[in-house]
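Listing S7. Sequence submitted for prediction.
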Amino acid sequence: MLRIWMNELESAESPQPDVSDLTRKTDAVARENRQYAVAANEAEQFSHRNNIRIKGLTVKREEDCRQVVIEFARSKLNSPISHDDIDIAHIIPNRAQSNQSTQMQQNPRKGRLLSSLTFAIAK
């Protein structure tokens, strides 16, 4: 009896999944994944809506980044910006500099300046 049952199990065809069904499911998961990636990117962009990056602006070691941004905006952009208009301002090191610690020790405040503003600069 056991032998007959084993023979039946061995001879029975295992159900093969439908390849087109698996392809449709894979495509649906890929579309959903893309939608989540787009939504995450939009959320990140929205969170940075008040940020500006200023490249090439030099900040000396003893200077306040916020004050440097204020002076830049007033002199170069003719914008009546005040200390209260800037949430935060700080240096973002260049990638090459962050990988080489000796360069960072020589000039630790060289890089891009990131500033988060609470207003939009008018044209």
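Caption to Listing S7: primary sequence and predicted structure tokens for the chain studied. The two ends are 90 Å apart (CA to CA). Residues 10 and 69 are 77 Å apart (CA to CA).
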